[in-house]
């Protein structure tokens, strides 16, 4: 910030010189430099109002320093915002370890893994969201890492901005009506082939998995499937998940596609809370 102070000083001297020059013209005082010190706030404001170009002249003459100052200020602001976000998230985690959110999980829920697992990871996701693909990959890593200690529950939250998000969710829900296990396979294939989403691909995938594609198409358009998706969306919004993906790890909210290490940290906090 030393260069910023120097620029301010230079600007102040310029203002002072201009003010003193104006005074000298009025009162025939020949030493404008002497008046550069001891300027009052009103004096500076008066000159700046009359000659705003002085500040611009100083900045133009010191473009490199000014640009570096702006970059430094932006970097410091990003750091401040990041620290605030991290502090807010830490408080949110601690609060929900004490008072976890309680999602609806029934026999009809899309769940895989040990029903008595130590950790239940509920995911609110969108099949066309690129961040949700990262979320899917993270969940796969966590499932392998924690094995029988982790259960996954998938819930739909298709975003309006993704034209294939809702149709994909409907076909996935329809697949569950025929076979919960094959529905999970359908789920994995959709996330692994996000660039192919569309009815031809849904039908092709259904045939590969041995599902009745025509029945899937009919069920996908049914009110029962639409209601199931609407219930997932409503629950997600109730937990203040605006975007995707969103997760609840034993009721602790995680808002975004965080890396595996973030989930590990929450699991450690859950362990510590039981001691």
pLDDT < 50 runs, ≥5 residues: 25-37
**Annotation, overall tally of beta strands:** 5
- CATH architecture identity of the largest domain: 3-Layer(aba) Sandwich
Radius of gyration: 31 Å
Estimate the mean pLDDT confidence: 87
**In what range is the share of β-strand residues?**
5-15%
Structural class of the secondary structure composition? alpha+beta
Shape: elongated
CATH homology-level superfamily of the largest domain: Glutaredoxin
In total, how many domains does the architecture comprise? 2
List the helices and strands and how they pair.
Layout: H1 2-27, H2 41-50, H3 53-61, H4 63-98, E1 110-113, E2 119-125, H5 130-146, E3 150-156, H6 165-178, H7 180-192, H8 199-209, H9 213-220, H10 223-238, E4 246-249, E5 252-255, H11 260-273
Parallel strand pairs: 2-3
Antiparallel strand pairs: 1-3, 2-4, 4-5
Helix pairs in contact: 1-2, 1-3, 6-7, 6-9, 6-10, 7-8, 8-9
Which characteristics define this entry?
275 residues; alpha+beta; Glutaredoxin; 5-stranded mixed sheet; elongated
Structure report:
This protein has helices at 2-27, 41-50, 53-61, 63-98, 130-146, 165-178, 180-192, 199-209, 213-220, 223-238, 260-273, and strands at residues 110-113, 119-125, 150-156, 246-249, 252-255. The protein is built from 11 helices and 5 strands; from the N terminus they run H-H-H-H-E-E-H-E-H-H-H-H-H-E-E-H. The protein folds into 2 domains: 2-96, no CATH class; 100-273, Glutaredoxin. With 275 residues, it is an alpha+beta fold. Helices cover 63% and strands 9% of the residues. A 5-stranded mixed sheet has the order 1-3-2-4-5, sandwiched between helices. Residues 25-37 have low confidence and may be disordered.
């Amino acid at each position: 910030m030393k260069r910023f102070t120097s620029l301010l000083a230079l600007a102040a001297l310029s203002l002072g010189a201009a003010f003193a020059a104006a005074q000298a013209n009025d009162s025939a005082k020949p030493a404008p430099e002497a008046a550069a010190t001891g300027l009052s706030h009103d004096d500076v404001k008066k000159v700046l109002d009359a000659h705003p170009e002085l500040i611009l002249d100083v900045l133009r003459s010191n473009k490199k320093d000014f640009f570096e100052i702006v970059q430094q200020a932006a970097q410091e602001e990003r750091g401040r915002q990041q620290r605030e976000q991290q502090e807010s998230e830490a408080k949110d985690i601690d609060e929900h370890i004490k008072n976890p959110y309680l999602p609806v999980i029934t026999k009809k829920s899309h769940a895989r893994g040990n029903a008595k697992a130590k950790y239940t990871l509920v995911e609110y996701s969108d099949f066309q969201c690129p961040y949700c693909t990262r979320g899917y990959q993270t969940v796969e890593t966590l499932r392998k890492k924690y094995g029988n200690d982790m259960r996954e529950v998938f819930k739909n939250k298709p975003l309006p901005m993704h034209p294939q998000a809702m149709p994909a969710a409907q076909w996935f829900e329809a697949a569950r009506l025929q076979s919960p296990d094959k529905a999970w396979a359908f789920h994995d294939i959709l996330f692994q082939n996000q660039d192919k989403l569309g009815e031809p691909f849904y039908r092709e995938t259904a045939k590969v998995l041995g599902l009745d594609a025509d029945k899937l198409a009919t069920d996908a358009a049914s009110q029962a499937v639409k209601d199931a998706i609407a219930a997932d969306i409503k629950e997600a919004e109730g937990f203040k998940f605006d975007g995707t993906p969103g997760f609840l790890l034993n009721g602790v909210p995680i808002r975004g596609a965080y890396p595996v290490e973030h989930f590990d940290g929450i699991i450690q906090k859950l362990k510590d809370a039981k001691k």
